[in-house]
Write a structure and sequence with these properties.
The protein has 205 residues and is an alpha+beta fold. 28% of the residues lie in helices and 23% in strands. Residues 1-8, 13-18 and 23-28 have low confidence and may be disordered.
Length: 205
């Protein structure tokens, strides 16, 4: 009899302990469900029901690195022709455009028969457009050594190239800072040259 009662006591103690734990959990306010159930919306902490905002990256179009301009070269029959060049957009100016002209034709253009009368040793010291659209172009190097038809063609190239920029009506020339008269198509010397004075050399369309 004594051994039989001693075996039952531990089991009774375990049952009592489990019952006490259940009562303790219920007393803490934590509900105990027999099966899974949906949590009411009002019981969900604020913000968890809101969809997270997607991060967006805004990309702006890059500013152009180069700007297209026109310079004027000479065809095999002595007329001018406009060709395109790309210059740095941040440095686009009359000086930059004329420096592109001084470089002369590309290999492809030279193969096609295009030439330039502007010496490669020409230096563009300064170039700007002033009142009334008159541009002043100050040149150095060997430009002042030109004579005859080559000089007329070189002046025409500079005048047409300069006139391709908006607002330019004529060009006054300087050699190393000193104002000089230049020849036009008729051979006359003028202080300010315009494209109308080079009609005989104008591009043919």
């Amino acid at each position: 009899m004594g051994r039989h009662r001693s075996r039952r006591r531990p089991r009774a103690a375990v049952v009592a302990l489990v019952a006490a734990m259940t009562v303790g959990v219920a007393g803490c306010g934590i509900p105990v469900d027999r099966s899974p159930s949906a949590l009411p919306r009002k019981g969900v902490p604020f913000g968890l029901l809101q969809p997270s905002a997607r991060s967006t990256t805004t990309t702006s179009a890059p500013s152009p690195v180069e700007a297209p301009v026109h310079i004027y070269l000479i065809t095999g029959d002595g007329h001018l022709i406009a060709v395109s060049r790309e210059v740095p957009a941040a440095q686009e100016s009359l000086t930059t455009v004329l420096e592109a002209l001084v470089i002369g034709p590309t290999d492809t253009e030279a193969t096609a028969g295009l030439e330039t009368a502007v010496p490669a040793q020409t230096v563009v010291l300064a170039a700007s457009v002033g009142a009334g659209g008159i541009a002043t172009v100050n040149l150095g190097g060997t430009f002042g050594e030109l004579v005859g038809q080559a000089q007329i063609q070189a002046v025409a190239q500079i005048v047409f190239t300069t006139a391709s920029l908006p607002g330019t009506t004529g060009v006054a020339f300087e050699l190393s800072g000193k104002s000089v008269d230049v020849p036009v198509a008729s051979g006359a010397l003028v202080p300010v040259a315009s494209i109308a004075q080079f009609a005989a050399l104008a591009p043919q369309f």
